[in-house]
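[Structure tokenization] protein backbone as discrete codes
[Encoding] learned vocabulary of local backbone shapes
[Protein] chain in single-letter code, fold in tokens
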Amino acid sequence: MKLAFSTLGVPGLPIPDVLRLAVTHGYHGVELRAHPEEPVHPGIGLAERADVVAEFKGAGVEVLGVAGYARVAAPGADEPVIEEIHRLLDLARDLGAGFVRVFPGAATDQSAEEADATAARRLGTAAEYAGDLGVRILLETHDSHRTGAAAIRILGPVGHRQVGSLWDVMHTWLGGEQPSETYAALSPHLGYVQVKDIASATDTTPLPLGAGVLPLTECVEVLSRHGWDGWLCWEYEKRWYEGAAPLPELLGAGREHLARLLNESA
């Protein structure tokens, strides 16, 4: 498996500095948070995109994916959501990234059936454009569909190779799902896995990997046992928890922890 980290952990950091961290601490890739407050987002022009590609190539680091904020199950018209996904797909294509992350984002007053059907319809439509660009759309286990069992209610009806899943280990754990159950649900669709650690279900402040309660050992064991060889991406949610320790000083130990889990599971 290859290792990456998300720029959610280093809010606003310029790309050259992000790449120095990746190279220094032995990460193979970076997941780029595609938000206007970050250096890379759908609003930047072609010249800026080309500069990002050149910087990553020069560092020998991959752009793993573009982490967008489109909410595919949200109420309202389909067109704005599909257009948002298209813009994320364009950005990913221009950066050479293989994946675009989207959220479920159903409202509390929607029925599960309505939310599932809305998300599947939009993803099915966007999948054709994604196929043309060679990028996969990944539905993250998050918010209204935080478990593999919930996500598969959307992914199953879509049934398109360009639409897959992004397994966020915190949300599936908070949803009461065991790693083996999540893998069984998502394995036909799995794009990559976001790892992290937290103190408890009531305190989700990010911690160094291995310092909290999330079942990272079990997750890696399940993936290894089934011969899965994709990406593990550390999503350290520093942007939402300003009091959390700075990610740069944790990256080296985090990589060593993941490498140890991989060695022990081999």
Observations:
- The beta strands are 2-6, 29-33, 62-71, 99-103, 136-140, 163-168, 190-195, 231-234.
- The radius of gyration is 17 Å.
- The first strand starts at residue 2 and ends at 6.
- The chain has a mean pLDDT of 98.
